[in-house]
């Protein structure tokens, strides 16, 4: 930097040169800046009126975030992407952008507990009318939709029962009635399933999970058409649910190995599901890769990989809690999707905010265990489960 001799030391220590790179970096730079210098007031006005400008103010957008948003849009096959500070920020911003008081929402009865809480408490409080249906039977959506239905919302595979919804069939119902179909694709990830290619309008992710893959960041993502995403961005902007650029960089690093991780984790999960199916102390195993899964054929039709999430029923709450505390390789933890295996008891952990009636309605049994399978050696994982189940 050439010394600006006409400026004092204190001024020069604040004003740094703008970096100009002669070659492209191999990793996306972290633009850790809250604001950006403008050429003139006209540019300030232009950016303030623009949707998702990347070099104005990081709550509006940011260059590092823009790269992440373009990557996830490309991987999901959508027109545009949007990054959020968490998965729930992505879900809540999407719901609030697409629904108004008096609108009707049809949602899967089996959903992540945070999503269920948002729907049952906040959306109802805002005057949104809601019907929950068993999403494993796609015909239920045609029966539940009305003239005021604006959004259909599903998870597939769902959390924690691993139920599968036929996306193409539900998308056909939604399009015939001019309803927006939104899908939480967290469990499958874009490596395992691409709902937009099957007719979905909006895809949301808790990017904390498989897209990150390393349990070191909290983030959310949404992908849709440009028109719908503009509506979601406006809600995102005023709610302030922006992602930090450093967290976006961690996601960009994680997504580079998404395909490799999902292949290994799916392989491990298939082996474990087959093992659990033969265990005398296990009443039922829920994994879409098993031919015994009630929606296996649908999963085989729409999923590229069956994923790494397994649920299994060991009969009672007491036995479930004993098993999740006895494992040693898999660790007891609330999240999922990382390279390390995590196990938990939904009724007393992730879904404990639901009432007994809501747990029953969602099909969450007292003895249900949820296992997020990691990339560890399969022999170690099987031996660990064997000793815990003994």
Explain what the structure shows:
There is one protein chain. With 390 residues, the chain is an alpha/beta fold. The chain folds into two domains: 215 residues, Aspartate Aminotransferase, domain 2 (3-Layer(aba) Sandwich); 132 residues, Aspartate Aminotransferase, domain 1, CATH 3.90.1150.10. 39% of the residues lie in helices and 14% in strands. The protein has a seven-stranded mixed sheet, with helices on both faces. The protein has a five-stranded mixed sheet with strand order 8-9-12-11-10. Helix 7 links the parallel strand 4 and strand 5. Helix 3 packs parallel to helix 10 and helix 4 packs across helix 9. The termini are far apart.
List the SSEs and their pairings.
Elements: H1 9-14, H2 41-49, H3 63-76, E1 80-84, H4 87-98, E2 104-108, H5 113-125, E3 129-133, H6 139-144, E4 149-155, H7 167-176, E5 180-184, H8 189-192, E6 202-206, E7 220-224, H9 226-239, H10 245-255, H11 258-277, E8 284-286, H12 296-302, E9 309-313, H13 317-326, E10 331-332, E11 342-344, H14 356-361, E12 368-372, H15 378-389
Parallel strand pairs: 2-3, 2-4, 4-5, 5-6, 10-11
Antiparallel strand pairs: 1-7, 6-7, 8-9, 9-12, 11-12
Helix pairs in contact: 3-10, 4-5, 4-9, 13-15
Envelope shape: globular
Q: Determine the number of helices (DSSP H or I, runs of at least 4 residues).
A: 15
Round the mean pLDDT to the nearest integer and report it: 94
Distance between the termini: 68 Å
Poorly predicted ranges (pLDDT <50, ≥5 residues)?
Answer: none
Note the run of SSEs as H and E.
Answer: HHHEHEHEHEHEHEEHHHEHEHEEHEH
Overall helicity: 25-40%
* Rg, alpha carbons: 23 Å
Q: For this structure, what is the CATH class of the largest domain?
A: Alpha Beta
User: Describe the biggest sheet?
Assistant: 7 strands, mixed
- Percent of residues in beta strands: 5-15%
């Amino acid at each position: 930097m050439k010394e600006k001799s006409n400026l004092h030391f204190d001024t020069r220590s604040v004003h740094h040169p703008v970096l100009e790179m002669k070659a492209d970096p191999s990793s996306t730079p972290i633009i850790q800046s809250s604001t950006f210098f403008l050429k003139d007031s006209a540019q300030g006005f232009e950016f303030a009126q623009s949707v998702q400008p990347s070099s104005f103010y990081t709550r509006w957008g940011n260059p590092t975030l823009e790269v992440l948003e373009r990557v996830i849009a490309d991987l999901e096959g959508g027109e545009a992407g949007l990054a959020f500070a968490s998965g729930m920020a992505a879900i809540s911003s999407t719901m609030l952008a697409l629904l108004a008081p008096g609108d009707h929402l049809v949602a899967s009865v089996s959903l992540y507990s945070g999503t269920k809480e948002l729907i049952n408490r906040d959306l109802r409080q805002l005057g949104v009318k809601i019907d929950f249906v068993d999403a494993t039977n796609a015909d239920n959506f045609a029966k539940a939709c009305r003239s005021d239905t604006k959004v259909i919302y599903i998870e597939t595979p769902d959390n924690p029962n691993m139920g599968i919804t036929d996306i193409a069939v539900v998308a056909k119902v939604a399009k015939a009635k001019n309803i927006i179909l939104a899908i939480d694709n967290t469990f499958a990830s874009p490596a395992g399933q691409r709902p937009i290619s099957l007719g979905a309008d909006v895809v949301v992710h808790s990017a904390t999970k498989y897209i990150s893959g390393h349990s070191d960041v909290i983030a959310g993502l949404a992908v849709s058409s440009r028109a719908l995403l503009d509506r979601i961005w406006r809600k995102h902007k005023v709610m302030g649910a922006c992602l930090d650029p450093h967290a976006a960089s961690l996601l960009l690093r994680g997504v580079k190995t998404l395909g490799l991780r999902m292949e290994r984790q799916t392989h491990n999960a298939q082996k474990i599901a087959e093992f659990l199916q033969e265990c005398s102390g296990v009443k039922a195993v829920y994994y879409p890769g098993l031919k015994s899964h009630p929606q296996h054929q649908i999963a085989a039709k729409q999923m590229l990989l069956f994923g790494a999430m397994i649920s299994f029923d060991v009969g009672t709450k007491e036995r479930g809690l004993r098993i999740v505390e006895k494992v040693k390789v898999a660790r007891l933890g609330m999240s999922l999707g990382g390279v390390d295996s995590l196990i938990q008891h939904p009724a007393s952990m992730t879904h404990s905010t639901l009432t007994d009636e809501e747990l029953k309605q969602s099909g969450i049994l007292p003895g249900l265990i949820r296992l997020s399978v990691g990339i560890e050696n399969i022999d170690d994982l099987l031996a660990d489960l064997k000793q815990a189940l003994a």
